[in-house]
Amino acid sequence: MNFLRNLIGSDQPKSHEDLVEIPSGTLYRVTPANGKQLVFRDAAATIRSTTTPFQYQLVITRIYAEDEPEKDEDVFDDDEHVYLLDKALRLRRLEGTPTSIEWTDAAGQGKGWEFEIDPEVDVDTQTKFEDLAYTCMYERQEGKSHATASDRELAAFAEQVKAAAHANPIGQKVKNTSRTPANALAGSVQGTPTPRSPLSPITSNQASGVRPSTQSHLPGHLASRPLAAVPVGETIHVANVMLHLYDPSVGQFLPVDQRATAEITEIAEWQFQLVVKSTTDYVWVCQPIEAEMQPTFNAAHKSFCWNYIQESTRTPLYTWSVIFQNVDDENEFKGLVTECLYEQSNREVFRKMKQQEQDYLMRLYDDDPMDVDVREDIAAENDQEQWEEEDAESPQDAPGASDADDSDDETGQQAYNAATTGSKNSQLAVGYKHERSFVVRGDKIGVFKHTEDDRIKFATTINNVRAMDGVTFSPRKVMLHQEDSALLMMKPGDENKLYKMDLEVGKIVEEWKVDDHRQIEEMVPDQKYAQLTKNETLVGIGHNSIFRLDPRLAGNKLVESQSKTYATKADFSCAATTGKGELVVGSTKGEIRMYNKLGINAKTLLPGSGDAIIGIDTTENGKWIVATCKTHLLLINTEIKGQPGTLGFQKSMGQEKPQMKRLQLKPEHVVWLGGSVSFTPARFSTGDSEEQAIITSCGKNVIRWNFRRVKSGHYYDYTIKQYEDTVVADNFKYGEDRAIIVALPSEVEMVTKNRLSTPVKLLKSRSSIVNSPF
């Protein structure tokens, strides 16, 4: 095996360096039930180094013919399949016609992969590839260079891996040969029954009786603790699971303990915890059940995925996943997690709700596709959007872009920044009629022009926003009105008035008093695109009231005949209107109400899960609603089942409550995005055509969901644009689903869709991994 020392060398290779390649072959998926299924007709197999010492990857890359179009499938169905080279793969080479390499899934169960090698690949290359794979596995297990081992030791290790593969070949049900999983991630040293692996925690181990490997390469701050340190409570449910931990260096969940138990425990009133431990009572995970853990269920894989939240900083450190042994455990676990999250948020017993409301909220974590029209399904599958790299050529980067324009724009931004020293951007209003955006910064408003090549240019500054009494203020909410000729705004501390700024003269010209008693918390147009018209009326929302405002009235502007005040605490927080003027209102309790006109009770009330709704929007036809909570979005189809064209705005849904789907970031993406999740209000794309996308932001990231594909069940079909600073607000350019206006604390820009990247592509860039514990 001396040639292996030449391939790897005594020193660690460079990160992401290809060490050896089989240039051509065919990849198959192999299962006991279905046999061999074609995945990539033409592919290459490579062994590649990683950024983590002594860890290597087996990479299968699809090869396209010159005239073959690249596929447009789910953004996570990438053209590279990556596997961590660990002896758990049970990799082996099968000589025949043709020769092939096979390996198992990390979870086993007889499922795996087979790479048929092109007969034209010489035997020497095949042998080098196989032997190098075993050498990489050896380095991973031992945590040291193979140069310190003898050829005999390496050969013995390779024979051990081959024997395990021969005992349990892929395509057959796995034999249960031992209580201890036969892999380096949950294995043990002979004579030592405790875990010894690179994933073994290295804190609190002496107290718990665990003796980890001294060569561990993963973080020393895993959330392990001795059993005595786990808060005592009433155990509600126990499930047998296989525990995995996400490793961003290889982009995979790696098995940790295949014979673990996951427990849900009530430790105090409205307080619940998740505990995952080994059969020897070694505690892998102990944490509160809360929305910030980003709980995600996947029925296809019978798995539950979540983030561990650091108690002191409240930031996610890493991502765990468990795979349930049976469907009953999975369903009961999912139901109990839903109950715990509800009770933790609402401080009330989940099972005291009406049964139909319980059933409605229980479906919140279902990941099956939504009920959509057949035509929408076809449109989603035929959607030819191409998700390009962030640095792909775009109008901002295209050859021929004017340097003079860039210089003028930079000068304008500098002038705007100089004129607004000491203040930061806080509000964004995007014009529909005149291609302008307005950004609030302190008591000033920046005006930015939209150009035809999807750029944004500074135009002017409106200085010293003043009320009629001459007192300057910083608007807390703004809304364009009457063909973008006016900007309506609210003044902090003056909650029962609105102020109208004439944008042609750049000053406030009217003050509107809503009512002597009712305060206004939110304002929305009469219809979704009313700002394109000269319409003067609008809708106001208070904590417990909904009303129409008519500026033409003398005195108070509230229209009494079109108002409703609730006696009970409604806690309204946001609202939106459809193209017909139907109204949807969200609350801090998570409830959603749908009205077909003002002054009456809601036609439909959707119960809340306890997560406050901070923003809400509808499609122009009212069929779809997107509600924003702190950690996720809720997408709702308002069409009543069995009654095509009839929406919950027009008729009570009763027991036919709509499907409500959570749109959230994958837990593992939250970790490498560098912080906890806090979404800004999400919005549909705007314009005459059907809505194609949803936009929101989270911290330093703008996130765009492909709405067509989301409707057909691809809930993680999103792309991301990362910035150096926190995103304050964002919205689509009117009539464009590909152009987005983004306000940062000190800058404003327009970004096009092809500047956003899929998480898979971002994760491949080392610079995109922020505060990774690995």
From TrEMBL:
Outline the extent of the Vid27 PH-like domain. Answer: 237-344
Q: Name one Pfam family in it.
A: VID27
InterPro entries linked to this entry: Vid27, VID27_C, Vid27_N, Vid27_PH, WD40_repeat_dom_sf
- SUPFAM superfamilies named in the record: WD40 repeat-like
| Comp. bias (Acidic residues) | 382-394
Q: Residue limits of the Vid27 N-terminal domain?
A: 1-157
Entry GO CC: cytoplasm; nucleus
Where are the compositionally biased (Polar residues) regions? 200-217, 412-424
Q: Region Disordered: what ranges? A: 172-221, 382-424
Residues annotated as domain Vacuolar import/degradation Vid27 C-terminal: 424-761
What name appears for this protein in its UniProt entry? VID27 cytoplasmic protein
Question: Which species is this UniProt entry from?
Answer: Geranomyces variabilis
